[in-house]
From TrEMBL:
It holds the Pfam family TetR_N. Keywords: DNA-binding, Transcription, Transcription regulation. The keyword Transcription applies. This is TetR/AcrR family transcriptional regulator. The keyword Membrane does not apply. Residues 12-48 form the HTH tetR-type domain. InterPro entries: Homeodomain-like_sf (IPR009057), HTH_TetR (IPR001647). One of its GO terms (molecular function) is DNA binding. It comes from the Bacteria. PANTHER family: HTH-TYPE TRANSCRIPTIONAL REGULATOR YJDC (PTHR47506:SF1), TRANSCRIPTIONAL REGULATORY PROTEIN (PTHR47506). Gene3D superfamilies: Tetracycline Repressor, domain 2 (1.10.357.10).
Amino acid sequence: MPAPLLPRDQVLAKIIEEFRHWGYDGTTLSRLSQATGLVKASLYHYFPKGKPDMGRAVLRALGDQIATLVLQPLAEEGSREEKLARMNAGLLEFYAEGSASCALEIFSLGTAKELFGEEVRQKMIGLRDALAFFVVESGVDLATALKRAEYGVSLVQGSLIMARGLDDHRVFQRAVEALPGLLFPEIPVAP
């Protein structure tokens, strides 16, 4: 077999872009071939099990990015406010200031839900729980922290949909700014 034309991470980055733009079901092998510049057979070199294999790789990569950009800052040194500011910066980066679609939404519809539904569920639970445990560290009881974290995740994900529907990315940006005040009501929300 000839050597691959592109490093796998570059191919995966292009596949992620296509999935985020078209969704799982709307992303065809033809679109992926065009986006990567590879013939369909070469895509199978990188992902032998085809599109489901690509979907698993995309989910894993996006999960790793969320962990690094959004959750890791909550465990780093600094004040609560500094950690929240770094988390918010990570959210803005991951979602391209609100222009990128919800990473997990693309795997919660149609065929993708059948293939990846449980993995998406686990990732959502992990995101909610990580935020909740961060809130608990400030002395808030677990039940309250879980509710706040659930509302926080809903705020972020819902604002992405609203920003796309209104064609106004500032909707997402304002939601991210409001997130610390939702998790910790004693933190004033910027007007």
